[in-house]
Amino acid sequence: MNKTIKSILVIFVCCCAVNSNAQKTIDTIATKAGGYDIPIRIKLPKKNNGKRPVYFFIHGGGWNGGDTNKVPPARLHSDANFLADELGIIYVGLAYRCKGNNATYADAISDLEASVKWFMDHAERFNADVTRIGFGGASAGSTLSASMAQKYTNCKVYIGAEGMYNLVDHTEERSPFPNQKAREIYGLTTKKKSKEASAFYNLKKKPPASLLFHGKEDRLCHYTQSEKFAKEIIKSSGKAKVILYDKINHTCFSAGHPDVLKNSVIEIAKLFIKEFDLEVKDISSIENLLKKRLKGQYPSKNITKEKLFGIWKHKNETLHVLENGKGFSVHNRTKKKRDFQYSLTNESFKIVLPNNKTRLYILRNSNNAIYYINIENNNAKYRRINYIKQK
User: Fold this and answer.
1) Residue 263 domain-assigned (yes or no)
2) What was the pLDDT predicted at 282?
């Protein structure tokens, strides 16, 4: 397909999406770089009357992924599910070349800039108000997004989750990401390159109003990264707020932590309303939506054997829960089998392995997933174990 025909098709898809009530999320190609198509994902609010502010989100993943054929896909953050329609925000997920594409950090920034330009060039078709834009990212995406937010005078908002903002003042003991190997692959081996990639050292005059989330138990990017970045933003005449969560590891937006997710989304809503000067001032509809959607995510207070009988599968292990207070686990790769005994309370499910090691789990109200609990700090890990079938 030649470039002209492809451009016409992209414009056609965009026009149909804007004028159709059925199509509200658009997946297309924003640009081409290094032989790769760079995708973009656009979520339009259902009510499309008037110009809408734009929030660009950059995914994390440790800059991993990608291969000789394609880059990792553009993704939207979970807050898009609650805020795009309720506040009338256009959410845009940006993609970029990663380590698997034999790319560097500079390549990623180039891809992101090209994608933003593509969107700006097509802003009229999306009823986008490009005088009101924001950037955000999670984990490895926070490093990129924080830098991107400093490049645009019309950027009013920055939102970072479990972020890494200073690659110079960094030790692998405190923050394993990025390790030396990742730096070598992604072109960040020198202090100069690391400094160029750190928003901490490249803040524009009066940075955008920034909201930074971090778990105090984050084992990849230490929470002091957010604290120090916020102080630097304030020193540069910007506004910054840090929200730290106790007993939370490397995620502040997982449904596995419903209260944390709810609080984070509400804080983002308040920031958007204020900094984008939205007509919507009442967030009760957002609170009700969160309450409805997260109802099944809270830990059950009524665990029974009948709810646990069957097979529960995680990517590394499958648990077989039997009726007689016993069961066994199977490692999905090695097929190694381990018997266990279990006991129940109204709120937890405890497994005792042959080596006397104990695991504690909670069951969600939706009854289709259990979450492992670290007994020492009561921290639900960022993973769910899905219900497969009843025996």
Assistant:
1) yes
2) 93
